[in-house]
Structures are given as C-alpha cells and as structure tokens.
Design goal:
328 residues, alpha/beta, Four Helix Bundle (Hemerythrin (Met), subunit A), Rossmann fold, 8-stranded mixed β-sheet, 13 helices, 8 strands, 51% helix, binds guanosine-5'-triphosphate, binds magnesium ion
Length: 328
C-alpha cells in the first residue's frame, strides 16, 4: 500500500479499507486501546515505557521472538538517541511491525500464457487442519480469480466426509464453476488427478483442490498429501504450483503448532490466515510471519464470499493501529 492509500484510509474515503478495518475491528480495539494506554500523555522514553510496550506485544499474540526482535530494534534506536520523544517511539514501533510483515507480503501470481499451446492450469492445493477454513477459502478464491477474468475449476479432494463434497459443490454453484468430485471414501489423489486431466483438456486457468483436514490419524493425512503430490506430478511435474496452508487465527499459538506439523511433510509455498474477524488475536499474524517466513497470500475477514483479501503489510498495520489516541 502506498502512502496515498494510508492517507485516504485515514480520511475514511476508501470503502475497501474500511471493510478491512471493520473485519479486523476486534484486534484493532485491542491494539488501539493498549497503545493509547501506553503512549497517552507526555510520556518520556524510559525503561518503564519500553517494558510496557513489550508486555503489550506479548499479550497481543506476537510471540516471544517477534516481540524480542521489535524490542531490540527499538532499544537500539533509543540508545543511539534517534528517538527524542514518545511520539517518535510510537511511529517507529509501527514501522518496525510493518517491516516484520513486509518480508511475507508476497502475493500469489497466476501466470498467463501468450501462446495457447503453452497453457496449463495453475494448481493450488489447499491443506490445513479440520475447521481451519480450507473449503470456505476455496470458494472465496474461486470468486476472486473469476473476477480477475480467469477460468476456475474445483476438485473435491476431501473425500472423507459426504458433507465436504456437498459444501464444495455449493461454492461451485454459487460461482458457477465446475466441481470434480467422486463418491465419499474414494481416493483423494485420484479425484484430484481426474480434475487436473479435465482442467488441462478444458484449458482452465486455475484448479483449486480441497483436501480433508482430518483422517484417522496424522500419518494417514500426511501420507495422503504426499500421494496427491506424487500423482499430480505424473501430469505436470510442477504441480501443485501452490501449496496453501490455511491457518485459523483464533487458535493463537495453536495455529503455529499446526503449521509446524504440515511443514514437516509438505512444502508449503503460501499461507492464508482465516477468521481474523472472529477474535482479537490478529497479533498472531506477526508471530506467524516471524516464525515461518512463508508468504502470507490472503487473510479471511468473514464468512462471506467477498471476505478474503490479499495480504498487505502496510494496510494490515494501518488497520489495527487505526484510532490509536496517543494524545500527542
Ligand atoms: N468468521 C469467519 N469464519 C470463517 C472464516 N473462514 C472460514 N470460516 C468459518 O469456519 C468454519 C470452518 O470452515 P471450513 O471452510 O468448512 O473449514 P475446513 O478447513 O474446510 O474444515 P474441514 O473440511 O473440516 O477440514 C465455517 O463455519 C466457516 O464459515 C473467516 O475468515 N471468518
Ligand atoms: Mg473442508
């Protein structure tokens, strides 16, 4: 986001920004209340103030590492006497937090092909624990890619539960995109293989494959994901082009443990962080960024089809700091 967008946002002119702000309002309330309390008044920069900031970050789900990094950078600037007053410290804190997210602010780019003979579907494999928001995110992504003029197909790779296939079909109908599915209990890799064959034949731009969040045990789930990868590779060695891990932000620290388990078995190339509207735990985004250094592609800010936004570091920080009153 450019400074212009930040400026517009402040003036409340951007409807787009206000939607994100509304989605993040629980986290925003927590941050703005906390920051206001820490910075309000004619504060001088001393140990106490730095400690208060540290506590605030720790209690805002940033995690120990991200908090330590930010505090170390602030302390350095304070020691060099670069920050004369609390307002400068506040501004620097915001900048530090933005920088922390900028490293993972890398959008998903779907290639286009000048020569139709080169065309091949861009395959996105969605992974994550049950209930994280995979299927919902598939639906939201389908709409997004379509609105960008791309053709989309969905693969019902969660063959574990009948309801899972039905849920995906509903999203397919809503977006008017084809859904490739087989009966419950069939082989997930084979459904996704069929879907990829069909997507190639129809010259579909994006194939999004849903998967199950839970099998009988972790080993089964992980074996299945490896098999899906292997089988897809028979049609296109580069597929899947994106393995998107979906993480539920409301679980806080737990989202990090979940991510660790998946990272042990699949090469995750991007993250989507869901349900940021559902709790005040949006600070976990900093924690995830610091811990994994994996591109955050999208954030989920509601259950509706339009409630998925490309992740933007500056916009994110701007939204959660909106309304901070330092009185300075
Ligand atoms: N508030 C909110 N709810 C969300 C968001 N994303 C998903 N949900 C809800 O989270 C619940 C679980 O979402 P699903 O998409 O079914 O999750 P899943 O990962 O496919 O779950 P399994 O298929 O069981 O593995 C649903 O009720 C969704 O509506 C979000 O960004 N905000
Ligand atoms: Mg699902």
């Amino acid at each position: 986001m450019t400074d212009n967008v930040a400026e517009e946002a402040k003036k409340g002119k951007s409807g787009f920004f206000s939607r994100i702000k509304a989605g993040l309002s629980k986290t925003q309330n927590k941050f703005s209340e906390g920051m206001g309390r820490v910075f309000l008044g004619e504060k001088i920069i001393d140990e106490d103030l730095l400690e208060e900031i540290e506590t605030l970050l720790l209690t805002s789900d940033l995690g120990v590492q991200a908090t330590e990094d930010v505090m170390a950078n602030l302390a350095k600037k304070v020691a060099r006497k670069e920050l004369g007053h609390a307002q400068a410290l506040y501004t620097t804190l915001k900048q530090e937090l933005t920088t922390l997210l900028q490293g993972v602010d890398i959008g998903l780019t779907i290639p286009t092909f000048d020569d139709p003979a080169d065309h091949k579907p861009f395959v996105i494999l969605m992974v994550g624990v049950n209930g994280a928001g995979k299927t919902t995110t598939v639906g939201k992504l389908a709409k997004r890619f379509q609105s960008e003029g791309k053709t989309v197909m969905l693969a019902a790779g969660d063959t574990y539960r009948a309801a899972a296939v039905e849920q995906l079909k509903v999203w397919g109908e809503r977006n008017d995109v084809p859904v490739v599915a087989q009966a419950t209990g069939s082989d997930s890799a084979s459904v996704i293989f069929d879907a990829l064959e069909s997507a190639r034949a129809r010259k579909v731009d994006v194939l999004i494959a849903d998967t199950a969040g839970r099998l009988q045990n972790k080993k089964n789930l992980m074996d299945e994901l490896s098999k899906i990868r292997r089988v897809m590779g028979k049609l296109d060695v580069d597929a899947p082009h994106e393995v998107m891990l979906v993480l539920d932000s409301t679980t806080g620290q737990n989202a990090l443990s979940q991510a660790n388990e998946f990272l042990q078995v699949v090469d995750v190339s991007g993250l989507s962080i869901t349900k940021l509207d559902g709790s005040a735990r949006g600070g976990v985004v900093f924690n995830i960024a610091r811990e994994f250094n994996i591109p955050i592609r999208f954030i989920g800010i509601g259950e509706k089809i339009d409630d998925l936004r490309p992740f933007n570091a500056e916009e994110y920080v701007e939204a959660i700091f909106d309304g901070v009153n330092t009185g300075l």
